[in-house]
TrEMBL record:
<dbReference type="GO" id="GO:0003973">
    <property type="term" value="F:(S)-2-hydroxy-acid oxidase activity"/>
</dbReference>
<dbReference type="InterPro" id="IPR008259">
    <property type="entry name" value="FMN_hydac_DH_AS"/>
</dbReference>
<dbReference type="InterPro" id="IPR000262">
    <property type="entry name" value="FMN-dep_DH"/>
</dbReference>
<feature type="domain" description="FMN hydroxy acid dehydrogenase">
    <location>
        <begin position="1"/>
        <end position="100"/>
    </location>
</feature>
<dbReference type="Pfam" id="PF01070">
    <property type="entry name" value="FMN_dh"/>
</dbReference>
<dbReference type="InterPro" id="IPR013785">
    <property type="entry name" value="Aldolase_TIM"/>
</dbReference>
<dbReference type="InterPro" id="IPR037396">
    <property type="entry name" value="FMN_HAD"/>
</dbReference>
<keyword id="KW-0560">Oxidoreductase</keyword>
<protein>
    <recommendedName>
        <fullName>(S)-2-hydroxy-acid oxidase</fullName>
        <ecNumber>1.1.3.15</ecNumber>
    </recommendedName>
</protein>
<keyword id="KW-0576">Peroxisome</keyword>
<dbReference type="GO" id="GO:0005777">
    <property type="term" value="C:peroxisome"/>
</dbReference>
Amino acid sequence: ANDSGLASYVAGQIDRTLSWKDVKWLQTITTTPILVKGVITAEDTRLAIQAGAAGIIVSNHGARQLDYVPATIMALEEVVKAAQGRVPVFLDGGVRRGTD
């Protein structure tokens, strides 16, 4: 494998078998509303809602491993527009001032 150390680390942290079907499955075993965290695109917003998510959490998980992930405040408008008021949208991140 020619992966960098970082690529190997990140790959080891992600369960590649997870899919939107897992959100649907979770709903069959609990009455707790399922919120999907880590959404930063309109496409994932629509997929999460189609899978039955009760809410969206716009998050880049702190962007600790991936410097090129957009700030959550930059993704918020796209996600809110895609949600079209169907589910609540929450923001995870460090908005310190109006220019962030």
